[in-house]
Amino acid sequence: MSTDPEGRTRTIKTDYLARVEGEGAMTVRIRDGAVENVGLEIFEPPRFFEAFLRGRDFREVPDITARICGICPMAYMTSAFNAIEDALGTEVSPGIKELRRLIYCGEWIESHALHVFMLHAPDFLGYESAWTMARDHREMVEAGLKIKKAGNDILRVVGGRAIHPVNVRVGGFFRAPDREQLSALVAQLETARDLAGEAVAWVAGLPFPEFEQDYDFVALHDLDRYAIEDGRLISSSGLDIGPESYEQHFSEHHVEHSTALHSLMDGDRTYFLGPMARYALNHEQLSPLAAEAAAAAGLGPECRNPFKSIIVRAVEILYVLDEALRLISSYDLPQPAAVESEPRASTGYGWSEAPRGMLWHRYRLTGDGSIAEARIVPPTSQNQARIEQDLRAFVEPRVDLDDERLQWECEQAIRNYDPCISCSTHFLDLTVDRK
Amino acid sequence: MTRPAKPELVIGVGNRWRRDDGAGLEVARRLQAAEPSQIVAVERAGEPAALLHAWEDAGRVLVVDAVRSGAKPGALHCFDPVDGPLPAQLFRSSTHALGVAEAIELARELGRLPAGLAVCGIEGEDFGPGEGLTAGVREAVERLVGELCGEPEEGGPGGGHAAAKARA
User: Fold this and answer.
1) Residue pLDDT, tens place only, A419-430
2) What are the pLDDT digits (tens) for A322-333?
3) Which residues does chain A have within 8 Å of residue B53's beta carbon, measured at their own beta carbons?
4) Contacts of B47 in chain A (CB under 8 A)
5) Largest CB tally within 10 Å, which of A32, A81, A276, B94?
6) Domains in chain B, ordered, with CATH?
7) Beta-bridge partner residues of B142
8) CB-based contact A141 B45, cutoff 8 Å
9) Whole-number pLDDT of residue B99
10) CB A134 to CB B106 under 8 A?
11) What secondary structure does DSSP assign to B99-164, as a single string?
12) ipTM computed for the complex
C-alpha cells in the first residue's frame, strides 16, 4: 500500500491473496478519488493440458484432465467423458447416469463445504482463518468438517478415492458399488443434511455489504432436475444452446496481466457463472427441503449480491445432500457398469456444472481414438472479467475506506467467486494504487 | 518436551508429481512396504480436514512433509506442535493455500490434536513438475524410514535428532 508524494494516487497491494486456489494478484489503482484501473492478475504458469492431451488415447482423457484440479476432479472427468461419448456416439444406461450424478453430488458437497466454512465465512466475521473463527464458532466449523467428509466419502465409495477418483471411465465405471456400500453412507449423509440446514440459517445471518449488480447469469438447465452433470446452456438474456454451439457465442481473449484467458459472450459482454447463476435459472427445481431453506434465508427468485453467494452455496449443499440420499434410496446396480466405445474420427462436445460454474470441453479424435485437438474452458477464466467488473463497481463508492479495510473487502469480493486459479491457468495478490 | 514411544501412525503428506514435494509420501510408501510392527503409514495430500480425519483415532502421530527454508537439501526439521504453531512459511500448502500448519492450528482450536504429535519436515531442493526425489532428499527419506523401522542410527546430519523427535 502506498500514496504518492502529492497524495493524488493511492496504491494498495496485496502480494498474496489467501484462501483462493492457485497463484494470482489483484491491483486497484485509485487516482484523485476515482478508480482508474482494476486488474485480476493471474500469474500461475500456464499448464498446457490441452497440448499434452494430443496423441493420448481417448480412454485416458478423464484421468488426465482430472489432474487439473484436486477440488473438482469430477467436473473435469464428467465434461471430458460427456464430450468423448458425444464424439463416439456412446449411450450410457440410466443407472450409470444416476451413479454419475451421485458422485458429482459428492464433489459439490466437499467443494462447497470447503469454501463456505473454511474460506469464505471467516471474511464476514472478521477472522483471518477458519481456525481463528473456530474459537468462537466451533459448532459451525465442526459442522463444515462433517459435511465435507460426507462429500469426500461419496467420492471414495463411488470413485475409489476421495481425490482424483480412479473408478470413473469413458462409458461408465470400472466397477459399480453395491447397494450395501452406498447404504452405509446414509446415516452420515442424513446427519450432514441436518447440519447443512442449520448452516443455511447461520450464513443467512452474516453481515452482508449492500452491493447488487445486473448480471447476465449463465448456467446449464435440465428439463427434469437441477442441472449438474449435463443439460443445455441458458442465460438470463435468453440464450439456449447445446455444447456444440458454445464457440459460436463465447470467445476467449488474452489480456496482458493474466495467464488465464478472459471469456466474453457475443463478443463484448461479461457473464456470470456459478451457484448464483444456477439458483437464478433453476431454483424451481430445488428439492422442497432446499427451496424451503432458501426462502427462510430470504433468497427470492434470484440473488444479485455476490457476497450472498455464500447463502446460495449453502442451499446447494443442502440440495445435493438431499439429492444424494434420493439417488442412494433408488439405486439400482447398473449392469454392466460401463459400455464400450468404438474409436472413430469425430469431434465431440461436453460440459457440466463444476462447483464454480460451467466447464466446457471439446475433443477432436482421429480414427484410432487418439486426441488430435483438445479445448477446455474452465469456469474461473469465464468469470475473470466479471470479477474485475465487480471489483471496480465495489471499490468506487468505497474509495474513502482506509487501505487495510479496503484491501480486506476487495479480497472478500474476489472470494465471492470461489476462484480456482489453478483451474483457470492456471494465486492472488492485491495491489490498490491510489493517486 | 517428552518423547513417548514410536509413532503408531505416520502420515506422509505431499504431491508426488512435484518432485521433492513427494518426500513425505515416499516415507509413507516405504513404511507400507517395510511393514514395521505397530506402525501404520498413510498418504495424504495435506488438506486440513483430511488430516484431522486421518489422525482422529490415533494416539501417537508423526506427520512428514517437505519443507523449503533454504537449508541443505535433505536436512530434517522436526517440530513439536505443543510448543506452538509451525512456521507456516516452511510448509508448502496444499490446495487453497491450506496445509499441515493450518490443519494443526484448526485441530488445536477444535481440541482434536492427537495425544502425541510430531512433525518432521524434509528440506526439498526441487519442487518443479515431475516425479522422483533429488539425491539428498532421497537419502533423508531412507534415513528417516530406517530410524522408524528401528535400524541403528548412522549419526548423519540431523538423523539422530529426527529419530528422537519422530518418537515424540
Assistant:
1) 775 544 433 455
2) 999 999 999 999
3) 145, 149
4) 70, 163
5) A81
6) 9-166 (3.40.50.1450)
7) none
8) no
9) 82
10) yes
11) -HHHHHHHHHHHT---SEEEEEEEEPS--SSBS---HHHHHHHHHHHHHHTTPPP---TTHHHHHH
12) 0.72
